[in-house]
Design a protein that fits this description.
Layout lengths: L1 H15 L6 H8 L3 H7 L3 H25 L4 H15 L2 H13 L1 H28 L9 H14 L13 H16 L2 H13 L3
């Protein structure tokens, strides 16, 4: 029952927004009393937190599965970015904005975890790419990793990229291509062109 509540809450939060969905709404959708939901989640904040970290863990596990495929670093980034673009669509992005506004502490915890996961993933990617001669020898792994993450987060900034003018998928595509061309050596540049054509990016 607890898992069903979490899955339904996630669906409603993404569709309508964290702020708009009440515990009454969830109880009505579950055809149960609100009191029953409170036995699992005493406060709405408890449910929001569980949903947010459940989504994070699921996406992280999918990224780890892609890394386990042991593709070359450029194809790995393309696959990860494709996954993230599918996940961070307009509705999910809107949910993040509401978390930032109404649940700032939770938002800070989430972005900190995202930062750590991305830094680990992409610093390892850069190191592998350097060893294989796919990335420029003069790049600074630490600096590039931080630039990558901070820019990635700012793609969700509505003040800079309002959703009525920019779609998440297009933003992610442009940034991925920009990032790869910026760090790739001549050998890597050829692969970028090859994969963009093959994967119809």
């Amino acid at each position: 029952m607890k898992d069903k509540i979490i899955l339904l809450a996630e669906k409603l939060y993404i569709k309508h927004g964290v702020k708009q969905v009440t515990m009454d709404d969830i109880a009505q959708e579950m055809t149960m009393s609100k009191k029953t939901i409170y036995t699992y989640f005493p406060r709405k904040e408890n449910l929001v937190e569980v949903v947010v970290f459940s989504v994070f863990k699921r996406v992280k596990a999918r990224i780890e599965a892609l890394i386990a495929e042991n593709n070359n670093p450029i194809l790995e980034i393309i696959k990860i970015e494709t996954l993230l673009a599918e996940h961070i669509d307009t509705q999910t992005s809107a949910m993040m904005h509401q978390l930032q506004k109404y649940y700032p502490n939770l938002y800070l915890q989430l972005t900190t975890m995202q930062s750590q996961a991305i830094e680990t993933t992409f610093s390892k990617n850069l190191e592998r790419g350097l060893k294989l001669g796919l990335y420029r020898e003069d790049i600074n792994v630490d600096v590039i990793t931080k630039i990558y993450y901070t820019t990635l987060i700012n793609l969700q900034n509505q003040a800079v990229f309002p959703e009525e003018d920019y779609t998440c998928c297009n933003l992610k595509r442009e940034y991925m291509i920009y990032h790869l061309h910026g760090i790739a050596a001549a050998k890597g540049q050829k692969l970028i062109t090859k994969y963009i054509t093959e994967h119809k990016i």
